[in-house]
Amino acid sequence: MSSTTAPAASPARRNTRQRAAVVAALQATEEFVSAQDLHATMREGGERVGLATVYRSLQQLSDDERVDVRRGEDGEALYRLCSTGHHHHLVCRVCGATVEVESSAVERWASRLAAEHGYTDAAHTVEVTGTCPRCSAHPGTA
């Protein structure tokens, strides 16, 4: 999520069969996934949905703050259903495992930093990368 303020009300969206199928496919995975991989999984499962529809649905879900979006090492957008509320991520740079974290310290720091420079209506995205316990314990196996 990229904002410390509540999102502006978005226009009412039709809950289409395709969007519901995208949400269902996202619910079936705990990891971040690319639009292409999600589309392939959906097609393999017998879902008749186009790649453009998957991209459009993911964008709408992102706009509605229902999915988290992060960039993979190659810059590709990766998506995952998110928990409610503003949060940040710890991301393993080896296997990509991601943990959602909330931190009031980060919120205070971001607000203070913006105020020190005269910024208003500031938003932020925080992603901390490191090596998860599993990859640290077994280097080279991820």
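Next protein, fold it too.
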Amino acid sequence: MSTQPTPRFRRGRKTGPKPKFSRDDVLAAAISIGLDTFTVASVAKVLGVAPPAIYRLFSSRDELVDVALSTAARSFHVDVEESSWKDLLRSYAREVWRLCEEFPGLSVVIFDYPLAFTHILPKAEQLMARLVSLGLTELQAGFAIDFIGDTVLGTHIPISSMRRVDESGQTGLERIEERLQDLGISPEKDLPLTPDESWMDTGNLDLKLEFILAGLEAGLPKES
């Protein structure tokens, strides 16, 4: 009587039926939920599958975040043909904002995920080289890129919270207005900053940017 050989499996090999969705489908679902808030379970729910099915394509939530950051970085484009370092930095600020709008939650993840910056390094180096060719030192160019990038990201985070709709259907801005009314505070009379629709758009980002550019022109750090 012959003995059947014991099946041998490759270590780490994924078994079971092939998923009926792609890595791109998973990525799109995660982006639609928000890169800062999605879970594997929430992505699976959007796709109409069980969470373990997601792990057949992505080993972890961190891997999915990493792929999303890589995707965002590939779409990042600044016109390096701008004729002045100020215009180039304005273009850079607009592009960072565009990515934050296109990839919800990106502004939070960039601050929270240690490897985020690695995805943008090649394009940051290209941007820095062009700034140097326009008259800045490497130290000054790096400082400007870091300062303006942080300003755009830091402005986008609270604006995202103003837009977010809660379970009652109210936006963050509407909740602020309601709270001030309950407290008997008139924004126009009692507050130096009045909540308005700009808090759900770009806020005072343009004003911040021009202030930064003026400050950089007057006092860019010198090489040590």
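About the second fold: Confidence is low (pLDDT under 50) at residues 1-13.
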